[in-house]
Every structure is written in structure tokens, then in C-alpha cells.
Specification:
The chain is built from ten helices and eleven strands. By secondary structure, the chain is of the alpha/beta class. The structure holds coenzyme A. Belongs to the enoyl-CoA hydratase/isomerase family.
């Protein structure tokens, strides 16, 4: 495994020989809570993974086995007022938007508590794999807050407004099993299989035509558009896929009963 050593202090960034970038939030003594430095370093890693042509997919996880991320750093909350709170939310949202907008697959490997901003981080990723002891929740109302890094918008889109309302209004935590039942996570596995399960999913996705995967991610990201608008977008992106070399290759390989060799063009 080759390691990027770009002076990161709160996040680790490693790229393996398959081209999978592993981003690990690294503040285990604070349950990997997100302070400004973590968000900034996470953002750097995401940009790096996007730019680096050798990177085909990304896994985001937390250090240790207790927490994926216990949300925004509550220490910082003492300084927030109406104005700075607004900016605080906008900054976190901008970082999480960049994760969602990645043209390469991003998988959250949820290794423990995913609370508040941690749950919001997981749902900004394209897919979620959880350890069987993971716990999800949006406890902000307990602090006199509401989710500010996308929870009120992404959670209802993912699990429906009724269940999202229950989680956000009660602040209650739910188990990984229940999260799986309601479609919040894609897989639940023992912690020792967590990263391998995430890698297997990435292997499956990255064995497909990369431009088609990027176009599908774009279409899925906009799947909350009004239906007719969404269908127009789908048709336009379908057209783009038809213009790629990989589309010719995929069809030719199928018709000639051979494995396709995709070039990402
Ligand atoms: N922000 C800042 N510090 C946090 C934190 C957060 N979101 N979550 C945990 N920590 C810190 C604790 O303050 C404590 O620091 P200390 O050792 O300096 O006292 C340390 O992490 C260990 O946390 P602790 O609460 O003792 O661990 P626990 O195992 O008993 O409980 C949690 C773990 C995650 C359930 C609990 O810490 C928690 O509920 N955290 C807050 C979650 C939250 O409300 N997030 C949403 C914020 S909007």
C-alpha cells in the first residue's frame, strides 16, 4: 500500500495498488469528531482523490473500532451565534457536497458511532457498509440544534420523510441492523470484514466502464428532480454514454462473448 504523506494531522490518506483511496478520520480519542481542521483535511483528500487519475474509488472510515464519526466537534459550538452558525453549516455542506459530487464511487465504511455530522458524512457517500456494532443517529435536537451538514435534506431522500422525521425529531440512535432494514446502509458485516466488503463493492463498480459509472452517479445524484426534468437529464447522460469508446467496447465484447477492456474514454 503506497501512502501519500502530505502533512495531514487529523486524517490519513492512503492509496492501494488497486487504486482505492482510503481516507481515515483520525481523532479516535474524540470519537473522530469533525472540527474545522478535520473538515479541511477531509476536503483536501477528496480533491486529491478526484484529481489523481490513479485513484478509481474511495473509502471513508474512522480510526479505531468505536466511532466512524461522532459528529461536529461540540467544543466549537460555544462560539457559534446565528451568523457564524450559518457559515459553519455552509462550510460542512460544501465539503460533503464535494464527496457526493465525486465522479468516482465513494463508500462509507462505518466502523462504529455515526452520529450527527457522522451520519451526514455517511449519507453524503454513494454507498454505506456498516460494522454490525455501528450506531446511527441525528442527536442535534438534544443540543438545541438541527442537522446542518445535509441531514434534513439527504436523510428523507434516502429513507423517506417519515423515518427521517422520527430520527431527526427524537434524536434517537438506531442499530446497524435497523439501519439496514430501512435502507440507510447497503451491507452490515462483522468489523473484521468491513474494509474488505467495501473494497469488494469498489472492485465490482470499478470493473465497469468508468465514464458510465460517473454518468450514473451524476444521474443518481439528481434523482430528486421533478420526474420529467429527471428523465430529460437521464436521456442527455445516456446520449453521452453512447458517445464513448467504452460503450462500443462493451457492446462488441458482449456480442463476441468476450470480456470487455474499458479505457475510461
Ligand atoms: N465533539 C467533541 N468531542 C466529542 C464528541 C463530539 N461530537 N463526541 C465525543 N467527544 C469527546 C468527549 O467529549 C470525550 O472527550 P474527553 O475525553 O476530553 O472528555 C471523548 O470524546 C470521549 O467521549 P465519551 O462521551 O466519554 O465516550 P463514550 O464512549 O461514553 O460515548 C458517544 C461516545 C459518541 C456516544 C458520545 O461521546 C456522544 O454522544 N458524543 C456526541 C455525539 C453528538 O451529539 N454528535 C452530534 C453533534 S451535533
Amino acid at each position: 500500500m503506497s501512502t501519500e504523506t502530505t502533512a495531514l494531522q487529523t486524517v490519513r490518506y492512503e492509496v492501494d495498488s488497486d487504486g482505492f483511496a482510503l481516507i481515515t478520520i483520525n481523532r479516535p480519542d474524540k470519537h473522530n469528531a469533525l472540527n474545522h481542521q478535520v473538515l479541511t483535511e477531509l476536503d483536501r483528500c477528496i480533491r486529491q482523490a478526484r484529481q489523481d487519475e490513479a485513484v478509481k474509488g474511495v473509502i471513508i472510515t474512522g480510526a479505531g473500532e468505536k466511532s466512524f464519526c461522532a459528529g461536529a466537534d461540540i467544543q466549537q459550538f460555544r462560539e457559534l451565534d446565528a451568523y457564524s452558525g450559518h457559515r459553519f453549516a455552509l462550510y460542512g455542506q460544501a465539503v460533503f457536497n464535494r464527496i457526493e459530487e465525486m465522479p468516482k464511487p465513494v463508500i462509507a465504511a462505518v466502523n462504529g458511532y455515526a452520529l450527527g455530522g457522522g451520519c451526514e458524512l455517511a449519507i453524503a457517500c454513494h454507498l454505506r457498509v456498516a460494522a454490525d456494532h455501528a450506531v446511527f443517529g441525528q442527536p442535534e435536537v438534544s443540543l438545541g440544534l438541527i442537522p446542518g451538514y445535509g441531514g434534513t435534506q439527504r436523510l428523507p431522500r434516502l429513507i423517506g420523510r417519515g423515518l427521517a422525521a422520527e430520527l431527526i425529531l427524537t434524536g434517537e440512535r438506531i442499530s446497524a441492523r435497523w439501519a439496514f432494514e430501512i435502507g440507510l446502509v447497503n451491507r452490515v458485516v462483522p468489523i473484521e470484514h468491513l474494509l474488505d466488503t467495501a473494497r469488494e463493492l469498489l472492485q465490482k463498480i470499478t470493473s465497469k466502464a468508468p465514464v458510465a459509472v460517473a454518468l450514473a452517479l451524476e444521474a443518481l445524484r439528481q434523482s430528486d428532480l421533478p420526474l420529467r426534468q429527471g428523465l430529460r437529464l437521464e436521456a442527455a447522460l445516456f446520449g453521452q454514454a453512447c458517445g464513448t469508446e467504452d460503450f462500443r467496447e462493451g457492446v462488441d465484447a458482449f456480442l463476441n462473448r468476450r470480456k470487455p477492456v474499458f479505457k475510461g474514454r
